[in-house]
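Tutorial handout. Part one gives the primary structure; part two gives the three-dimensional structure as tokens.
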Amino acid sequence: MPKFGDLESAIMTEVWAADGPLLVREILDRLDRGLAYNTVQTVTEILSRKGWLEKERDGRAFRYAATATQSQYVAGLIQEALSFSEDRAAALVGFVESMPGDEADELHALLAKAREGSSSS
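Part two.
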């Protein structure tokens, strides 16, 4: 799973935050970076070709929506990072040990809930 470039990431963040599909002009306005319309349109089209955005015609323009949630994207990045480790358990331990206590507690609760769900099936 490729990590997004800076502008790709900014565009995806705006699309994920939106209530519905966005026009390139709306994405450009939300970015507030002084970019050219064509720059945002080009990168949005690239994201569409890569499968991260789907587009639907809206008059002469297109509206863009994400094909996956931000959480799904982050989960994919974590999976990819773990795939580089010869010892996934050690990598996970290092990851958990670097978490703030409240996040580690939340992870522990989520794992317990997942374990309960899988044992009742």
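Part three, for discussion. The first strand starts at residue 22 and ends at 23. Residues 6-66 form a domain with the Arc Repressor Mutant, subunit A fold (CATH 1.10.10.10).
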